[in-house]
Amino acid sequence: MSRPKKNAEARHSRQVIFRLKDTEYEALRVLAERAGMQPNELARRLTRCGSATLVIKTHRRHDPAFLKRLDQVGNNLNQLVKSAHIFGRVSPLVEKLCATIDGLIDEALAEDGDGS
Question: Residue 70: how many CA atoms within 13 Å on its side-chain side?
Fold first, then answer.
């Protein structure tokens, strides 16, 4: 099923192309990255707001390595629970895994509360 056509008012049909100095582009890129969007999208939104202040809500992102580690711990916990259901016994490593999970949660909460 193809995507429905946008009406004429919703389509972006005009292009505005201009050049920036390296320093100007870098400032735009940094702002766009902080806002979680591409530089072109930020420039588009800035032109739409006119003299009003543009407010972009951002959310703190965790380190990808941290998220990968948390995912691995979750997979291990899932395997332990599955094994407990199949064999009717719990591995002695469950307590260590739960302590690891608690440490990761404490780390995440401390990072969120550091004012960043």
Answer: 13
- Rounded-to-integer distance, Cα 68 and Cα 75, Å: 11
Mark out the alpha helices in the chain (DSSP H runs). Answer: 22-35, 39-49, 64-87, 94-112
> pLDDT digit string (tens) for 54-97?
776 666 666 778 778 878 888 888 888 888 888 888 777 777 87
Q: Which long-range contacts (CB under 8 A, 24 or more apart) does 13-22 make?
A: 16/47
What lies within 8 Å, CB to CB, of 111 at 6+ separation is 60, 62
Give dist(CA 70, CA 72) in Å, integer.
5
Please answer whether residues 74 and 39 qualify as being in contact, where contact means their C-beta atoms are separated by less than 8 angstroms.
no
Q: Is 7 exposed, middle or buried (0-12, 13-18, 19+ CB in 10 A)?
A: exposed
